Every structure is written in C-alpha cells, then in structure tokens.
Amino acid sequence: MDFLDNLFFFLVRPLLAISFVVCFIALWWFLAWKLVLSHVPLVQEIFGLRKKTIKPKPESRGRISKFYKSISSQNPVPI
C-alpha cells in the first residue's frame, strides 16, 4: 500500500495538477479567441484569416489631380 501511495503522491497528483492548469488556460484562450481576438484585424492578418483586399486607386483621387488636369487642358504644350 505504501508504494501505491508514493506513486499517487509523486506521479499522478502532479500530472493531474498540470493537466488541470493546461485545460484551464486552453479554455480561457478559446473563449478569448471566439469572443474578442478573432475580430481584431491585426490578429486576423497575423494568422492569415483574412486576405488583404487591394483596391485599385482611381485616376482622379483628389483636388490636386483635378487642378493639374484642368491646367494641362487649358494650356496644351506645343510639340
């Protein structure tokens, strides 16, 4: 009986404690992942969950490009 008590005390109890802690951490990580982390764009990009969409830039993006187009159409450059 003494051998079984020592085996339980030195081997089984620490393994149960370690497995409990690992399961506890895994449970909270899973909950945090499902509730918060999977919705953060930086985390999505790191883990490859969402591909970055590349939109082509429009030719006339703002006021400056419109200004230069209006100047070049009013004063054509002679060849």
UniProtKB/TrEMBL annotation:
Keyword terms: Membrane, Transmembrane, Transmembrane helix
One Pfam short name: DUF4750
Top-level taxon of origin: Eukaryota
Transmembrane segments: 7-31
InterPro entries with a match to the protein in the record: DUF4750
The protein's name in its UniProt record: Uncharacterized protein LOC104742092
Organism: Camelina sativa (False flax)
